[in-house]
Specification:
mainly alpha
């Protein structure tokens, strides 16, 4: 039987290979092997299962006159409706986006168009079914946009108890925030099916974040709870981190930041997250409290070395722009430990460190020497402007009469600020991938 089972396994994998084609060693291949093993177990159970009469005889029961077992009817399975099928497919694709699949992100636009086309082709009576209504709203809030909801309302088939949900979602997507808040915040996101509930909680959080940040955080927590491992959770976690930063809730900010960097570091939207995260870190000013730098380092240690280097560079530059020299020096020095000597990243890190040290007592000469030796030819325009501003500040400090030992206070942030934060190519590419959900959040005023 072992040889027979092996043949079954080989046949299952061979057929799977011919139909789907992924290479051995891939995630799909591992899943196929698991399915084949389950098939073998099921086959073995079918071959060796004993009928009731035989089982009774083998234990001394005799089994004479025993009635044959009644056949078990299969459980009824209701096929998915088209809207439910389309939404499930979209969610599966978006979950791959949360894990970093560029092809999935590229294919999302085509899937959205295809799904909307199929749903708009349904008979008007389809929208009398609340199941289809919930699926359509989930689709619209999850990136599909308002067109389908307008089409559904035009059918005049929407049940009365579903009308506020459809009208509120349409108002949100069309930017009518006050109307959307009135209609949608009355719906308990925990009382509807989880797929819609998670998307609804994410939407509600956007509607209340300006007036009630605490409620927005509760709704984002609910969205994460209802949709773990999905793009909805990724988006909710990403937004909640920045709401917490605005509220200066450092403990939860750090906990959720570590969670995001561990679980969604490869998300298509992670590049945008990292740049905003760097700005949030400097606003929190980790240099203002003993032990903060160690906690900052613990957070960033969750990232792979290349990404950690890029994020430290962003933190250093953002700290310079905000006049937080201690944070800038710390981040720049950490960057140096993650770079090859003479690389562009190393040159930038030393520039940022020197620019911050210009106004530090006893470090002036060291700073000026580093600035003078910086190779301008490898710097981006924003960093060249920073170098010029730092050198100009150094000249002013040296020429100040009557200040032999003391240095003047740090210049205003604008003295060392460039017009934009330089970004690495990877982050620049990721910035271009800001998705539909982020667009919806911006419409709400986030």
């Amino acid at each position: 039987m072992r040889g027979f089972s092996g043949k079954i396994a080989h046949l299952t994998l061979s057929l799977s290979w011919k139909v789907w084609g992924p290479a051995p060693g891939s995630t799909w291949w591992a899943n196929a092997k698991l399915r084949s093993r389950l098939a073998i177990v099921a086959l073995a159970m079918g071959l060796f299962a004993q009928p009731p009469a035989y089982a009774a005889d083998s234990h001394g029961g005799g089994g004479h006159g025993a009635a044959p077992a009644a056949p078990i009817d299969p459980l009824p399975v209701k096929p998915y409706t088209v809207p439910v099928e389309m939404v499930r497919t979209l969610q599966l694709l978006q979950d791959r986006i949360a894990q970093g699949s560029g092809p999935a992100h590229t294919g999302q636009r085509a899937l959205l168009a295809h799904a909307e086309e199929r749903m708009r082709a349904l008979e008007p009576e389809a929208w009398a079914d609340p199941v289809n209504i919930r699926a359509a709203v989930t689709f619209a809030l999850g990136g599909g946009g308002p067109a389908l909801l307008r089409h559904i309302l035009a059918s005049s088939k929407v049940p009365a108890d579903s009308t506020p949900l459809v009208l509120g979602s349409l108002a949100f997507l069309e930017g009518r925030e006050k109307e959307a808040r009135t209609l949608l915040t009355k719906i308990d996101a925990a009382s509807v099916p989880v797929g819609l509930g998670a998307q609804l909680a994410l939407t509600q959080s956007a509607l209340v974040v300006r007036d009630d940040p605490a409620q927005s955080i509760r709704l984002l927590d609910l969205a994460r709870l209802l949709a773990p491992g999905t793009l909805v959770e990724e988006g909710a976690l990403r937004r909640e981190i920045f709401v917490l930063a605005q509220g200066n809730d450092l403990v939860k900010f750090e906990a959720l930041a570590i969670q995001y960097l561990r679980r969604f570091r490869h998300s298509v939207y992670a590049g945008n997250f990292r740049q905003r995260f760097a700005a949030a870190l400097t606003r929190l000013d980790f240099g203002a409290e003993t032990g903060r730098f160690a906690r900052l380092q613990a957070m960033l240690d969750e990232i792979e070395p290349e990404g950690r280097r890029d994020l430290y560079l962003l933190v250093a530059r953002a700290a310079l722009d905000q006049g937080k020299n201690a944070t800038a020096i710390f981040a720049a020095e950490r960057t140096v430990t993650l770079t090859e000597p003479g690389s562009v990243a190393a040159i930038r890190a030393r520039l940022y460190r020197a620019a911050a040290l210009v106004v530090v007592d006893g470090r002036f000469e060291e700073s000026v020497e580093t600035l003078r030796m910086t190779d301008r030819s490898v710097l981006a325009a924003a960093d060249r402007d920073l170098l010029d501003a730092a050198l100009a500040t150094a000249r002013e400090i040296r020429d100040v009469p009557g200040v032999p030992d003391a240095l003047p206070p740090a210049p205003e942030p604008s003295r060392l600020a460039a017009r934009e934060l330089p970004t690495t190519p990877a982050i620049a590419r990721a910035q271009g991938a800001i998705g539909q959900i982020d667009d919806l959040m911006r419409k709400s005023g986030r």
